[in-house]
Design brief:
There is one protein chain. The protein is elongated. Helices cover 31% and strands 14% of the residues. By secondary structure, it is of the alpha/beta class. Helix 10 runs parallel beside helix 14. It has 15 helices and 16 strands. It has a six-stranded mixed β-sheet, with helices on both faces. The protein has a three-stranded mixed β-sheet with strand order 1-12-13. The chain has a three-stranded antiparallel β-sheet with strand order 5-6-7.
C-alpha cells in the first residue's frame, strides 16, 4: 500500500513547474504504463486519465494525482519521462529551481476546479482522441543503409520474365502526406505526429531507387483529387517504366481523409490509373502504398497454441497475386484492317500495399510512432533498401507483413492491453516486378 503523500521537496518541484508541464508534457500510453508498472497508478486512474480528450487535461489530471501517490511517485514519474524521451522535462524537474532562476514564484498548482488557462489550449498540441485509430507506439528508428545495388548477373537472369525496368529515372513517385488537420472542419482528426517522418523516409528511399519524387503535405480531399489528376496526366509517363503513389492520412475502409475531414475514395484513385484513363502507363507497373487505418478495430492478438515452431509461418495467405486479368490478356479481336489487336483488362499491372488488414468481419487500425513514423513505412523502407536488389515486390510485401507481424505495442487508452498489426497487399501484376536498383543495362 502506498504511503500517504509525496515528499515536500518533490511536491514543490511539481508545483513550481506545473504550468510548463501542462503545456509540454505528453501523457501517452507508454508513460501511463510505466507508472502502472511501478504501482503509482491504479488501472482505474490510468483509464480516467486517458479518457480526457486533450493533452492538457490528461497532464492536469496526472499532476493532481501524483502528489497523493506516495514518496516514490516523483522518482517513478521522472523515470517515466526518460523512458518516453521527454528528457527536457526530466531535467527541468530534477534541477534546482534556485540555480536556473527562470521560474516565477507566481506559478502555483491551481485547484482542479478552475479551468485551464486559455493560452494552454493550443490547437497544434491537440492530443490523439480515442476515435483516432492510427496509434502512436514505440518502434525502431528508420534505417539509413543505402539501397543495395542489383548485380548485373541477377538482372540478366531475371529481366526476361519481369516488367521492363530500364528507364532512368525508373518513373515518377507521388507522396501525399496529411499530417495536420483543420480543427474546425475535422475536429475528430488529430495531428498525425510522426507522419512527416514517413513522407521523408519515402522520399529518400524512392529517390535512391531512381524515382523522381514529389511530396505534397496537408491537402483537402479535393486537393488530393486535383493533385492525382495532374500526376496521371503527366506526358512524361510515356518515357518511364513505372510509377509510385503513396497516400498517408487518417482513413476508413476504402477511403482516406483530406485535411478538411472529407473522404477521398481509393477506388477512384485506382480508376485514375487504369488502362483507359492513364494510357501512357499501360503495361507498366503501378505501385500504391496506403498508410492509413481501414476501420476502428484494433488487433490485440491471440495466444499461439501450436508452440514456437509456428511463429515463422504466415498469419494469413495472400490471394493469387498475378492471376487477375490473365484470362483476358491473350484475348484478341480483329480491327478494321484485319490485324490482331490486344484487348487489355480495364485495370491491370497494379500492386497496392495497405498498412492495416481488411478482414471478413472487421477492419483494423494502423500503428504509428510519434517520432519515428509508422510501422508499415518503417518496414517497407528497410526491406526495400536491403532486398530490392534481388527480390520482386510481391515477395518484399510478404516480408513486410512478416516483420510487422512480429511487432507488438500497447493499446491506446488502456495501457495494460497489448496490440498487434498486420498489413496486406493486393495485386494484378502479370509478371515479376523487380526494381533492379542502380543497374543500367549496357547497350
Amino acid at each position: 500500500m502506498l504511503e500517504c503523500g509525496m515528499l515536500e521537496r518533490d511536491r514543490r518541484a511539481l508545483r513550481t513547474r506545473s504550468t510548463i508541464l501542462c503545456k509540454q508534457l505528453v501523457v501517452d500510453e507508454l508513460l501511463i504504463q510505466s507508472l502502472q508498472a511501478d504501482d503509482i497508478l491504479t488501472e482505474s486512474m490510468a483509464e480516467n486519465i486517458m479518457a480526457e480528450q486533450t493533452s492538457q487535461k490528461r497532464s492536469w489530471r496526472l499532476l493532481l494525482l501524483l502528489p497523493k501517490r506516495g514518496p516514490r511517485a516523483f522518482s517513478s514519474f521522472c523515470s517515466a519521462l526518460q523512458e518516453t524521451e521527454q528528457q527536457h522535462l526530466y531535467e527541468l524537474l530534477t534541477q534546482s529551481p534556485e540555480k536556473d532562476g527562470k521560474q516565477a514564484p507566481a506559478e502555483m498548482f491551481v485547484d482542479s476546479s478552475l479551468p485551464l488557462p486559455t493560452q494552454e489550449v493550443i490547437a497544434a498540441k491537440r492530443a490523439r482522441t480515442h476515435e483516432s485509430m492510427e496509434f502512436s507506439l514505440d518502434a525502431d528508428s528508420p534505417i539509413n543503409t543505402p539501397v543495395l545495388p542489383c548485380a548485373p548477373d541477377f538482372y540478366l537472369s531475371h529481366c526476361q520474365q519481369s516488367y521492363r525496368m530500364n528507364s532512368s529515372p525508373r518513373g515518377f513517385a507521388l507522396v501525399i502526406s496529411n499530417v495536420t488537420f483543420d480543427p474546425c472542419a475535422a475536429p475528430d482528426l488529430d495531428p498525425r505526429k510522426g507522419g512527416e517522418v514517413d513522407d521523408e523516409v519515402l522520399r529518400k528511399v524512392f529517390t535512391e531507387l531512381d524515382y523522381l519524387v514529389t511530396v505534397h503535405r496537408d491537402l483537402t480531399a479535393q486537393g488530393m483529387r486535383t493533385c492525382i489528376e495532374n500526376f496521371c496526366r503527366r506526358p512524361d509517363h510515356r518515357t518511364v517504366d513505372s510509377c509510385v503513389v503513396c497516400l498517408l492520412s487518417h482513413g476508413v475502409e476504402g477511403a482516406i481523409y483530406g485535411t478538411d475531414g472529407q473522404l477521398l475514395q481509393l477506388d477512384w484513385v485506382f480508376e485514375s490509373f487504369d488502362n483507359a484513363r492513364c494510357p501512357l502507363l499501360q503495361n507498366k507497373p503501378k505501385m500504391f502504398f496506403i498508410q492509413a487505418c481501414r476501420g476502428e478495430e484494433m488487433d490485440c492478438g491471440v495466444e499461439q497454441i501450436d508452440g514456437p515452431a509456428r511463429t515463422c509461418s504466415p498469419s494469413c495467405e495472400q490471394r493469387d497475386a498475378g492471376r487477375e486479368g490473365q484470362g483476358d490478356a491473350n484475348s484478341r479481336q480483329r480491327g478494321d484492317m484485319g490485324r490482331p489487336r490486344i484487348k487489355l483488362p480495364q485495370r491491370s499491372d497494379m500492386i497496392c500495399g495497405f498498412a492495416s488488414l481488411k478482414g471478413q468481419r472487421i477492419c483494423t487500425a494502423a500503428m504509428r510512432n510519434t517520432k519515428r513514423g509508422s510501422w508499415f513505412i518503417q518496414e517497407l523502407n528497410t526491406t526495400l533498401r536491403l532486398h530490392a536488389r534481388d527480390t520482386h515486390l510481391a515477395d518484399i510485401m510478404v516480408q513486410v507483413n512478416g516483420h510487422i507481424k512480429e511487432r507488438e505495442g500497447f493499446a491506446p487508452g488502456t495501457a495494460h492491453h497489448r496490440c498487434k498489426e498486420m498489413s496486406e497487399f493486393t495485386s494484378s501484376l502479370c509478371k515479376d516486378l523487380y526494381l533492379f536498383p542502380k543497374y543500367q543495362p549496357q547497350y
